[in-house]
Amino acid sequence: MGTSYTIYNRMPDEQLFNLVKEDNRRAFEELYNRYWFLLLEQACKPLQSKERAQDIVQEIFISLYQRRKSIELSVSLKAYLCKALKFKVLNEFRARLVRNIYQQAVCAEGKTDFASPVETKELEQAINRSVGRLPEKCRKAFLLSRQENLSYKDISGELDISVSTVEKHISKALKLIRFQLNC
Length: 183
What we know:
Structural class: mainly alpha
Helix content: over 70%
Number of domains: 2
């Protein structure tokens, strides 16, 4: 058993992934072991939750395995996994944003009963549409503030604009989102 694992240990990612496509579980285990901690470390930083980061990394590997036969890599496997992680983390932030806006809307209306899953999904879609309609710089500033929890000063550095412009963008974003949601 030890010698077969050293064979996989020495193989390049692309060769291992080709074996994974042929249902070779040991090759998949090797890729999993190579990239689990790297992806976990990268996910922990923005999410600030080791448990959620572990869940997301696990979801990435499950998806990779389930879709193994249809995936055609145009970049390295490492780049593919890192890109998948980036999208998963962004989706997590988007979901948090939806929950936060929904909670604010519920609190503002004084509602104590909770919405049905259908209402929640509709609200999430409406918020995503509203955020998508924001002007580009306004949207970027808003997402950096709400999803990445950056300070206005950090956002101003990231977007190369003044702090007061960041404040105006975020204020405008909130007004437009509330208006579009009729809150």
